[in-house]
Specification:
InterPro entries (chain A): Brnchd-chn_aa_trnsp_AzlD (IPR008407)
Radius of gyration of chain A: 20 Å
Strand content of chain A: under 5%
Distance between the termini of chain B: 39 Å
Structural class of chain B: mainly alpha
Distance between the termini of chain A: 36 Å
Keywords (chain A): Membrane, Transmembrane, Transmembrane helix
Number of helices of chain A: 4
Order of helices and strands of chain A: HHHH
Low-confidence stretches of chain A: none
Pfam family, one (chain A): AzlD
Protein name (chain A): Branched-chain amino acid transport protein (AzlD)
Number of strands of chain B: 0
Largest sheet of chain B: none
Shape of chain A: flat
Largest sheet of chain A: none
Number of helices of chain B: 14
Mean pLDDT of chain B: 90
Number of strands of chain A: 0
Structural class of chain A: mainly alpha
Radius of gyration of chain B: 20 Å
Number of domains of chain B: 2
Low-confidence stretches of chain B: 1-7
Oligomer: heterodimer
Strand content of chain B: under 5%
């Protein structure tokens, strides 16, 4: 690929990506703010996060379940995110150590 | 002076202190961001992209998944349509992320809002909405976290493009690929309001899995997020007397 084309590709990617980043707050500006909208947006945040976590966990296979399960349990017990993430990863790493990388 | 009879929701702010809090909140996920950045730099050189172009891409696009996807399309002549469609599809989830930040942009000038959105990403967004639940009202939280990730991502790309040697298998061996999932999962725990979230979250999870199985790649966050949000809204509307 020529340098000119490479730079055009980078520019196009940057524009499309920024459009998605700015698009959400831009579009939601046209929606009248009501209790209903607020309600939807509150559910939206959690739902997006669930939609990020669930497929990634399933794709991770057994280690995915171990990492996420331990992290959630630790977060509930310790009430702190950082140690919970560390424990989840440690558990997954141990699992991989014994079972091999899947 | 306006009468204070109508209690209005407090406006959002964007301060350096907020940036600092946001930067601290995403420290835990910097190692995987760094490793994936190095991997991207290596992979980019692997398909014949010059190091400085790879670095420029990381600076201007700052979108890991889309950047990896474009490597497969790095051919001559440029496959413009697939390239643009892939970039949009992978990043379309940002639209939902941005929309959910409406309350945190309230009262801020447009240039600050649209400037901050340039650094919008899953990780700093997740950190921010978790913090919002604890009373955070500063959009700087997004900016600080995003800026730190941006610097990490760009420098890692440069290091990967120059040095190399690491493979995605190494990443898997140390379970680094799971740090981001674990981070999102723990964020979810803090976000949960109670039983009211059960139905929307169940619907979101099932819809996202369904999208993984039945739709082209990368639409699952969009589909799951919208389905879950709508499920909660419709349930509440039906319960209303």
């Amino acid at each position: 690929m020529s340098t000119t084309n490479a730079l055009l590709v980078v520019l196009a990617m940057a524009l499309v990506t920024y459009a998605t980043r700015a698009g959400g707050i831009f579009l939601v500006g046209f929606v009248p703010m009501s209790a209903r909208t607020e309600n939807f947006l509150r559910y939206l945040a959690g739902a997006v996060l669930v939609a990020l976590v669930v497929p990634a966990t399933v794709r991770g296979g057994p280690e995915g379940y171990v990492a996420v399960g331990v992290a959630i349990l630790a977060r509930l017990v310790l009430r702190k995110a950082l140690p919970a993430i560390a424990l989840g990863i440690l558990a997954a790493a141990l699992w991989r150590g014994y079972m091999g990388v899947s | 002076m306006a009468p204070a009879s109508q209690p209005r929701p407090p406006g959002a702010t964007l301060t350096a202190a907020g940036c600092w809090r946001g930067a601290r909140a995403i420290l835990a996920v910097l190692p995987p961001v760094f490793v994936f950045g190095v991997a991207f730099g290596i992979a980019a050189r692997g398909v014949g992209i010059e190091g400085w172009v790879a670095a420029l891409m990381s600076m201007a696009a700052f979108a890991g998944a889309a950047q990896f996807a474009v490597l497969d399309l790095w051919t001559s002549p440029v496959p413009w349509l697939p390239l643009l469609v892939a970039t949009f599809a992978i990043n379309a989830r940002h639209i939902l992320l941005g929309a959910s930040l409406r309350g945190l942009c309230r009262g801020l000038p447009a240039w600050k809002v649209y400037g901050a959105m340039a650094l919008l990403s899953d990780l700093n967004w997740a950190a921010l909405i978790a913090a919002e639940r604890r009373g955070e009202r500063d959009l700087g939280y997004l900016v600080g976290g995003g800026a730190l990730m941006w610097v990490t991502w760009v420098s890692a790309t440069v290091i990967g493009a120059v040095a190399g040697g690491l493979t995605l298998d190494d990443v898997k061996t140390y379970a680094l690929d799971l740090v981001l999932v674990a981070f999102f999962a723990t964020t979810l725990v803090g976000l949960r309001r109670g039983r009211v979230d059960d139905l929307p979250w169940l619907v979101a999870g099932l819809a996202a899995l369904g999208a993984v199985w039945f739709l082209p790649p990368n639409w699952h966050v969009m589909v799951g997020g919208l389905a879950g949000g709508l499920a909660g809204l419709i349930r509440d509307e039906l319960k209303r007397p």
